[in-house]
Amino acid sequence: MVDTSNYLHFWGNSPESEEEYYKSQNIKASKSFYVSPRGISLFTRSWLPISSPPRGLICIVHGYGNDISWTLQYTTIFLAQMGFACFALDIEGHGQSQGLKAFVPNVDLVVDDCFSFFNSIKQKSEFQGLPSFLYGESMGGAICLLVHFKDPKGFNGAILVAPMCKISDDVKPKWPVPEILTFVAKFMPTLAIVPTADLLDKSIRIEKKKIVGGMNPMRYRGKPRLGTVLELLQVTDYLSAKLSEVSLPFIVLHGSADVVTDPEVSRALYEEAKSEDKSLKIYDGIMHSLMYGETDENIEIIRQDIVSWLNERCS
């Protein structure tokens, strides 16, 4: 049983500070706020290797209702230990960034925010000349593809983890609920009433990890907001119709037991994308939270698949 009585940090109830923890992991980490061109204050973090110069940049976008300060750090710290400089931001309405919690009224504006922040990192003198990669989980995978469409030659590749190119029918509200909600959303887009099951239960397999994920102080626990759901449905419809226009190198990773985003759409992305360099990994029996919610053994397999893919493109 996990002791959750004083779960102050993503690593547990250890009294050590963030700085001490990162030092013990042999990385350097920082956090700050970035003001996007439209004036939105966005919370950002970085994780860098300290034993050697970085081999590449990884620009990271989290999933819906998530943030960059909790379980996502298990992945970013690992990637930094593997020699990559990682940068991420809490998107509008998530984590410590500005905006109504879990309200995403316009994904295009979020894409612009990410694009601007990632470019500001790539333009730093210490990182110029390094290969740069997008990394997105779930909704973040969809945003990464939209960033790619905005600048098709801007990145050397993308790592797409259970990307939300289509929302699974298992978590969509059933007719006539969508039609009713669409009408109500025109007048009350911030209303949090969309009837869906808790995504934590549908994403994480390991019970003790489910408990830790639920302890995240930044996690949104309410029902999805009308405007956010409609925006995501429109975005996924748009993306599923434009899979053939994806041209950057990518690896897409998905669990066959995912009931949040559809693994068959990841398969369609692999088959339809015009990218000459593309890879697909479908993991049998694995759920939506590939990088945190599975057994440590399964996570290690997935991590090594990602690192092997990166190593081949950073040699």
From TrEMBL:
Transmembrane segments: none annotated. Residues 53-294 form the Serine aminopeptidase S33 domain. It holds the Pfam family Hydrolase_4. InterPro entries: AB_hydrolase_fold (IPR029058), Hydrolase_4 (IPR022742), MAG_DAG_Lipase (IPR051044). This is Serine aminopeptidase S33 domain-containing protein. It comes from Papaver somniferum.
